[in-house]
């Protein structure tokens, strides 16, 4: 039997005694201090890294903010040089069909004011091309709100119109007398649906045209779709931007007004202010004139049989259908950065409310001019003709440095297209 080990003597081998083991363990105070130091260092270094990362992010953000808030040239679009006109005829675009080989004579009765009729004339040329028809110079609207009895040749250079488009469409001033006498019946009259596709004209219009030899399309505005092939779109551009040239008397007076403005200032803003009674009545909006305004504009609105008579003015404004007032246009221009020293040319007809309505805009921009102010007695021969007056406004607006409108009407559409085509006009589109 062996002896029990003597606890008073150290053990020469095997595991250490519990007391020795306890002496070998680190002190809790030491461990706590070490962990605290390590944690503090980690936190400190992590904080430094986080600050460095945040500093880099903040630096990048600030640089982006600086780029986003670079001074904007309110007189010229930075993207204007990225646009160019493309109206040239392709080599594979066949020549116009001669009059004696065409499918018949297409007569067009346009509708609306000058610029609405301009759009109709443009589409009339394209429809004639689609039908291989001979186009008779379009008839302008003499019965609309404006009551202007001007003919095509009173506003546009008709000989230039026919000559410029001679390779695309055959155009005549009237149906030849011998052809009219040989017809069994008068030209057929019909109205195409709005934004009709080319197939409609080929399937529905062409058979009647070939059978009757002459056909008239009435109220021809926006009667052709925008979904056309590239060559027909180019033809639209040739008509709108080249073939439709104003008569010499209109063009001369328009350029004279531009020259007068250029003598006073190197640049000016043209404002197309559609605030006439017909425009406000058509919109169905209310401008705070009380029962008098509601009654007057309500009577004007009755002239359009197809318009609802019970529109909510509040709903129309919330939908963005209300033209801006002269004061709202002025405040918008000032907010954009145009100073009160800016020269304004205001293109408009009879403003509802007269000078009282215009005064807030005059106060914001004292250098305020209209065709009446600039032309003086030279304007007198044009006064009975609203479309000729509108043509003068068109010329001065087209030559401006910045064009802005209080509505999204036809003149705004035509001039915005011209600003893109010629890349020489800064156009401010109002998001109503």
From TrEMBL:
Keywords: Carbohydrate metabolism, Fucose metabolism, Glycosyltransferase, Membrane, Transferase, Transmembrane, Transmembrane helix. The keyword Membrane applies. The chain crosses the membrane at residues 29-49. GO terms for biological process: fucose metabolic process. CDD domains: O-FucT_plant. One of its GO terms (molecular function) is glycosyltransferase activity. InterPro entries: FucosylTrfase_pln, GDP-Fuc_O-FucTrfase. Residues 12-22 have a biased composition (Low complexity). Signal peptide: none annotated. Pfam families: O-FucT. Residues 1-22 are annotated as: Disordered. Belongs to the glycosyltransferase GT106 family. This is O-fucosyltransferase family protein. The lineage of its organism: Eukaryota, Viridiplantae, Streptophyta, Embryophyta, Tracheophyta.
């Amino acid at each position: 039997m062996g002896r029990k080990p003597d606890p008073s003597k150290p053990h020469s081998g095997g595991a250490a005694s519990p007391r020795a083991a306890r002496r070998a363990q680190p002190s809790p105070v030491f461990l706590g201090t070490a962990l605290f130091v390590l944690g503090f260092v980690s936190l400190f270094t992590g904080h430094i890294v986080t600050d460095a990362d945040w500093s880099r992010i903040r630096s990048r953000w600030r640089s982006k903010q600086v780029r986003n808030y670079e001074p904007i040239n309110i007189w010229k679009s930075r993207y204007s040089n990225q646009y160019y006109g493309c109206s040239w005829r392709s080599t594979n675009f066949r020549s116009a069909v001669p009059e004696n080989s065409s499918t018949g004579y297409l007569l067009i009765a346009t509708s609306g004011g000058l610029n609405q009729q301009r759009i109709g004339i443009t589409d009339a040329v394209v429809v004639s091309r689609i039908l291989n028809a001979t186009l008779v110079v379009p008839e302008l609207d003499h019965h609309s709100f404006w009551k202007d009895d001007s003919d095509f040749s009173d506003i546009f250079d008709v000989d230039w119109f026919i000559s410029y488009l001679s390779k695309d469409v055959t155009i005549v001033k009237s149906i030849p007398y011998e052809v009219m006498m040989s017809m069994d019946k008068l030209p057929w009259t019909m109205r195409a649906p709005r934004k009709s596709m080319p197939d409609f004209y080929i399937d529905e219009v062409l058979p009647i045209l070939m059978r009757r030899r002459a056909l008239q399309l009435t109220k021809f505005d926006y009667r052709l779709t925008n979904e056309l092939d590239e060559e027909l779109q180019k033809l639209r551009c040739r008509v709108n931007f080249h073939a439709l040239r104003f008569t010499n008397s209109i063009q001369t007076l328009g350029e004279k007004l531009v020259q007068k403005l250029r003598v006073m200032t190197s640049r000016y803003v043209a404002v197309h202010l559609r605030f006439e009674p017909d425009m406000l009545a058509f919109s169905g909006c209310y401008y705070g004139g009380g029962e008098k305004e509601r009654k007057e504009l309500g009577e004007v609105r009755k002239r359009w049989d197809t318009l609802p008579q019970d529109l909510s003015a509040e709903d129309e404004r919330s939908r963005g259908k209300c033209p801006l007032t002269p004061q709202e246009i002025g405040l918008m221009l000032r907010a954009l950065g145009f100073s009160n020293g800016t020269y304004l040319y205001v293109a408009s007809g009879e403003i509802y409310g007269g000078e009282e309505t215009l005064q807030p805009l005059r106060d914001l921009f004292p250098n305020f001019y209209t065709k009446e102010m600039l032309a003086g007695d030279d304007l007198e021969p044009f006064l009975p003709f609203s479309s000729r007056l509108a043509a003068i406004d068109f010329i001065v607006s087209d030559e401006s440095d910045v064009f802005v409108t209080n509505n999204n009407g036809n003149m705004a559409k035509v001039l915005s297209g011209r600003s893109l085509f010629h890349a020489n006009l800064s156009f401010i589109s109002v998001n109503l």
